[in-house]
Design brief:
- The protein is of the alpha/beta class.
- It has one domain: Vaccinia Virus protein VP39 (Rossmann fold), CATH 3.40.50.
- Helix content is about 30%, strand content about 20%.
- The chain has eight helices and seven strands.
- Strands 3-4-5-2-1-6-7 form a seven-stranded mixed β-sheet.
- Strand 3 (about 95) and strand 4 form a beta hairpin.
């Protein structure tokens, strides 16, 4: 029964406040074990991929994949999170405005293999960020407001190449006992969203 969460809305201000207050229990210092376990599924024998991290926060996996020779692109609402990512990994970066996105910024490692967009994910399009060979969705779909899932899924489908790999992590629990996020997304809904 996902009806109990259907109308729940977490505002952009609430997400920014989580970062400001350090209320980021969703951040994993060591990276996610499922990415390590299913890395071969994501890469599918390919090298030099463009990998997308929706709602990336300061995910340590971004540097890990970049160090393997992949190009990483993330999007995050919190500028604090983006700057903490570069700082915590001692990565020099440059910052520039994204003309197509009002108030949008892009932070890029000076090596060029990590680009993090600071804006709403819904401001992105393939004309701005290009297309991707892989997606690591560790906490994005479950963080998106339930009413926005269709819009989110459409964007993700639009951002991936035909032969891409999409790794998605969800959580399973009784949605009547927790208001979310993370939100409960039943498998049937995932199938209807992504086909």
């Amino acid at each position: 029964d996902v009806e109990s969460q259907k109308e729940r809305v977490v505002t952009e201000e609430e997400w920014l406040q989580k970062w400001e207050m350090g209320n980021i229990g969703f951040h994993k210092e060591q990276g996610h074990p499922l990415l390590q376990k299913y890395l071969d599924v994501l890469l599918n024998g390919r090298s030099g991929l463009r990998i997308f991290f929706p709602l990336c926060g300061k995910a340590v996996e971004m540097k890990w994949l970049a160090d393997m020779g992949h190009s990483v692109v993330g999007v995050e609402l919190s500028e604090q999170a983006v700057k903490e990512f570069f700082s915590e990994h001692s990565l020099p970066y440059c910052e520039e405005q994204v003309p197509e996105i009002s108030g949008g910024k892009m932070f890029q490692s000076t090596s060029g293999n990590i680009s993090l967009y600071c804006c709403s994910i819904y401001d992105l399009s393939s004309s701005i960020v290009g297309k991707f060979d892989g997606v690591w969705d560790r906490g994005a779909l479950v963080a998106v407001n339930p009413r926005d899932r269709q819009c989110y899924a459409s964007l993700m489908i639009n951002l991936v190449e035909k032969n891409s790999s999409y790794l998605l992590v969800t959580v399973s629990y009784d949605p009547n006992k927790h208001k979310g996020p993370p939100f409960y997304v039943p498998e049937s809904e995932i199938k209807s969203l992504f086909g």
